[in-house]
Structure formats: C-alpha cells, structure tokens
Amino acid sequence: PAVPGAAMRLAALLAALRPVLPLVLGLSLGCSLSLLRASWSQGGGEEQCPGAAGPPGARGGGARPEAADGRPVPGHEDFRPRIVPYYRDPNKPYKKVLRTRYIQTELGFHERLFVAVLTSKATLNTLAVAVNKTVAHHFPRLLYFTGLRSAKVPHGMVLVAHGDERPIWLMYETMHYIHQHFGSDYDWFYIMQDDTYAQAEQVKALVTHLSINQDAYLGRAEEFIGGDEQARYCHGGFGYLISRSLLLKLHPHLDSCRNEILSVRPDEWLGRCIIDFLGIACVSQLQGQHYHTYELAKNTEPEKEEEQEFQAALAVHPVSDMTMMYRLHKHFSRIQLDRAYQEIQDLQMQIRNLTSLTPAGEGGLTWPVGINAPFLPKSRFEVISWDYFTEQHLFSCPDGSPKCELSGASKADVSEIIESALEQLNSRYQPLLRFSKRQLLNGYRRFDPTRGMEYTLDLLLEAVTQKGHSHVLAKRVSLVRPLSKVEIIPMPYVTEATRVQLVLPLTVQDLDFVANFLDMFAMNTLDTHDNALLTLLFIYHPYDAQRVGQVDVFAGVKAMVGELEKRYAEVKIPWISVKTEVPSQVKLMDIVSKKHPVDTLFFLASVWTEINMEFLNRCRMNTISNWQVFFPVHFQEFNPALVYRGEQTASSSTDFLRDGHFDRHSFAEACFYNSDYMTARTKLAADILDRDEVLESMEVFDVFLHYSGLHLFRAVEPGLVQKYAIRSCNPRLSEELYHRCVLSNLEGLASRSHLAMALFEQEQANST
C-alpha cells in the first residue's frame, strides 16, 4: 500500500519541478562548458604557469609582451589605456588655465580651404573682378594679391598689396603672407591666377577627399626646361593645391629660395624651391583623386565644347577677357545644374521604388517626392493660414491692413512662381499642347517651416494644339519652393565681459517709478558686482527749469542716488540735466553720446524696466560693434484690476509671462555701441542739414534703420518684464510716435477675453 503513495508523491514533486527544469539544465550545461573551455585554454604545454620561472616581465593569461620597465615591446601596437593621476606641485604657484575662444581651436580643428588669387595692375579691374563675381562667393575665404602700391580696391574684394611687381617677389611675399596669417587656420591652400577659371564646387569637393596628413603639391604637372624628367612643377595658370603640412615645412626655406634660385616664372620658382629643399614634385593625381585641367584655345566657344576633358575640368586656362570668364561660368553652372536635376530624379525614382516596401506602402509617398510632408496641426491654434494674392495686390499685409499693393520681393516671387508653373505645364504636355497665361484668377501661399513655401494657383490658360486650335481653360496647380541647404552666417566674436552703460531718461511723470528702478538696479547689478554703470538723464520742462533754485522736481531722485553712492562707496551714478519741451529720443542720445567714449556699449532703458543680469548678458551678446544693434521687445504685464478683478495675482515663477503681452509698439529699449550711433548720426545730419525739427519725429531705431548698414536684431525678450503703468504720451511728438504710444497703452490694458469679461460684468451690474 505504501508503494502507490510514494509514486504519487514523486509524481507530484516532478510536476512541481517541471517549470524550473529548463533553467536547471541550462545552468548545468553552461557551467560544464565554461569548465571545459578553461581546461583547454590552460592545457598548452608551452605556456608557463603564473608562478613558474620565466623571462623577466613574462605574464600569464596571454597578456601582451612588455619590457622590464613596463613599456610595450616594439612591434606590438595593442596598447592598453592607463589613467594618469593629476598631480600639482605644491611648491609652484597655481596658474589659471586659459581656455580658447572656440572649441574647434582647442581641439585643433582647421578650416578646409583658403584661396589666393594673383593679379596685376593690368587685370585688377577686369579679370580679377570677373573672378570675384563668378566664383569668389563659393569659397569660404578668398584674397587677392598684387604687387601694386596703394592700389584702388574694387568693391567687394579683399586685396593685399606687396608693393613690388616683380613676379618672383610677388610669389615669395604671397607665400610668406599666407603662412604668417593663415598657416595655422586652414588645411589646404589653393593658389590661382586671375586668368584662370576654377570650378569652385569641384575644387572644394576635391579637398574633402584628400587626407591632410600628407605633404601634397597637386596641380597640372609640367617639366622644367632642360631639367630632370622626374622633377615637375605645377603650372600656375591652372592653379595648384598645397597642403598645410607642406607649407609649414616650406616656410623656413623661402628666404634661401629667393636668394639662390633664379627663374623667370613664379610657378617654376616655387616648384624648384619645393623640389630642392623638400624633395616633393608636383603630381596630377593624389590618393585616387585627379586634378583635371583644360587649356583653352583662341576663339573657343564654351557652349559648343563637348569634349569630356573640357566637361570634367576643374580649371580652365587661359581666359582672355571678362566676357569669356562669364561665359565659362554660365556653361559650367548649367552643367552642374543638369547634374543636380539628374541626381534629384534618380533619388526620387529610388524613393518611389522603396516606398512600396514600407508599412505605409505607396500611400505614404509625399509630394513632391523627397520633400518633407506638410505640417499636421494638432489643434486649431497650430493651423498655418494661407495668404491670398493676385498679380496686383496682397490681401495679408505686414502692417495689418486688409489690402496692399504687391511690390518688391513679393511681386518678384509671384512672377517667378507663375513663370515656373507655365514652364512645368509646357514641359509636360508639349508638343501636343502649348500653354500661355491669360490671367491669374486666385493665388494662395503659406510658409510651412517643415518644408518651405507652398503655393496654389488658379490660372486662366490658353491651350494651343499642334494644329493651331486654341481653347481657354482654368487649371489649378500646386507648387513648393523647398527650404534649401541651411547656411550658418558667420558672426564676429563677442564676450559677456563688456561693460554696459545704462542710460535712463526721466521726466516729471516718471517720478513714482524711479525708486523701484533704483532698487532693482542695486539688487541685480551692484550687489552682484555686474560690470554695469548707470547714467540718469533729468528732462526739465522750461517752467521747472526756471524754478530749480527754489523747487527742484528731481530733488528726491538725487537724494536716492546719494544714498546709493553712500551704500556702495565704489559706485558713482552721474546725472545730466536737459531743458526741453519735446524730449526727442535722438536729441537726448546726442547729448549722452558726446560724454562717453566711442567704444561704450549703451543700454537705453525706461523707468519701468526691471534690470537683471540675464538680460544684460543678452544685451552684450546680441550687440556687435560695426555689425549689429539690438532692440528687445519687453514683456508688458496687463492691468491687474482688469485681469484678476480683486483676486490674488499668480505668484508662481512659471506664470510670470502669462498675464501680459510682448509690446511690439515700443522701441524705448535699445542696445548699441556709441561708435555705431555716431556713424549713423553723421549720415543723418548730412541728410537733414539744419532741419532739427525732423529729429522730433524719429527714434534711435529709425536712425539705425535708415542711416546705417548694420543688422537690426529685433526679438522678444522674456528677461525684460515691465509692470503695468499708463505711459504719458507727449502730443508734441510726431503723429506716428504719439499714435504708437497710445496704441501701446490700449493693448496693454488686458487681453480680449479679460476685456470681454469686464464688459460682461459691467453690463450685468448696470442691468441689476
């Protein structure tokens, strides 16, 4: 009887262990295999155990051989990393580590290509100008070198004049100048003459495929007259590339080459110098890349040249005149454009073929093929609206008016789009049909940030058949101007260490807000030792100016300034008194400008501004001398009586930009350098002559907008928050300035929803 019970218990135990049996078997098998592998790896008869006798430095476990001092044995490059502990000698004084301006400098990065163009007195205003107009904008950096003294530089060109027109001396000085000023900044140096046409994009593509770690002298290799057949120099007429490493090695020998090598041609002289002192000859092929050239014959027609050698040429020489330079540029630009269109078609075909294999299938194919799909809004607030236009008018104007004349860039844009639509229609339907435009019925456009500018056109067309029959029809077409390659605009280097000079104009109406301004200035700049100074500008009315001896309306402000100077002994807050009935911003700035150095960075503030370090740093970074001025758009809080209606205001730091708006009508705040203001002000004075009344209708923004070639950076500034206050609008200012001030006060009351709620509550109160 006990046997069946034991069998049942065993069956129950196996049933309980069955889920974990695969895990137990896997662990057992893994341990067994690991033990077998360990026994095999230690079973070699030629290896010694770790404790056995052997040569010094020998280690078990297959480690790499090392010498007695721990260094790797030559021939073994399998280096293992080791941590070098930081140690500073306590006996030596500590020196602060100075970081570089840019991370690429610290990491040793260099720009890719520098181009030098050799020109002369006879060709500076002809061929050199043609080079500058055709290919200069394609190269990242291009300089012109000449032997003229005090040469007049054509517009848009950077010229280096050496003062000696001897060809050898010009080449020597050019190489020396390139090494001295650009030798540590670029990897490749391309030297060409002004009678050479170079395909800029092809030259840039060539250097991207070449290694910078090799001494390279690449161009059209030519034999020396009567010299060694193996020694070759690069013909200067077709341009040549020199690597940075070769330039660094060549520079110490330039003086010796100038004194010892006699030659008539500068390219031969340079080639002989490189060969004699470095042993490197010119090559036409390097690292699998060919430097193709083409020698242009007289009376050549570039449009009719069909030779493969001409089509693939990186450089063409000699170019006889400017017209030929422009014809060559047009021809090669057409070739590159055709190649680009063909590549686009090939890529679109590949996308169509691969789309069928995706989960979405052919339904996921967007139009145009290869362009991002249109933006899909997630709510009604994200819908991108369309702007309606005709050939004469635009119905969405920048100034907010419902209708304005189509002009300038917008008119050129519409004309180009219509022309492109007709071209596409004719290319698709010819020779069966030929279309011509009768009228643009409707036009719509919108900017989609994910893909570009989209257009929808309703065109009234006349279609003509091959037999001459015509028919008028309306057709809707859709076009897209896609976003092209993003270009990073180079900007001058600026720092956050620049001193900011705050200028605060004050009138009698501003006295109630001065105390808060000075408190915020002391807390955010003086207590933090920020590099900022303050100058007050007291604007007296003529009546108050006459009574200043008995009653000074700004006596309280001057007392507060005195208290600040006592609290901060190292701080001085000067003030300037001005008597005027019309406080023109330009006239006031003229007075302040004359009392400060030209390199002063001004921040023109208002009494409602709450100064903070975050904004001052942005003022420093966004203002660049002789390049850019900054006009921030402050955030204006709404009237709390209308927004909260007796409720407690939001005190959360995340809601400080909620109940207000960015006041785009105000141009009171500005950051600019004194030198830039003085330059623009000089041009303004020459324009208005002695008509000072014109200044009453202008602001500092207008001075920079109309009389300077600087960038005007106008952007919202969340760090510049102003409490609600009714601004006093002077009716003696110009109509535009007065209207802008009134509009700023009205829009600063509250939002439309708050105003609607206030009106609703008022109507309810009146009805009861």
Automatic annotation (TrEMBL):
Comp. bias intervals (Low complexity): 47-56
Phylogenetic placement of the source organism: Eukaryota, Metazoa, Chordata, Craniata, Vertebrata
Gene3D superfamilies: 3.90.550.50
GO cellular component terms given for this protein: Golgi cisterna membrane
E.C. no: 2.4.1.-
Record has Transcription as a keyword: no
Protein name (database record): Hexosyltransferase
Position of the signal peptide: 1-22
Feature: compositional bias, Basic and acidic residues: 66-81
Organism whose genome encodes this protein: Cepphus grylle (Black guillemot)
Region ranges (Disordered): 45-81
Subcellular location: Golgi apparatus, Golgi stack membrane
Family membership: Belongs to the chondroitin N-acetylgalactosaminyltransferase family.
Membrane topology note: Single-pass type II membrane protein
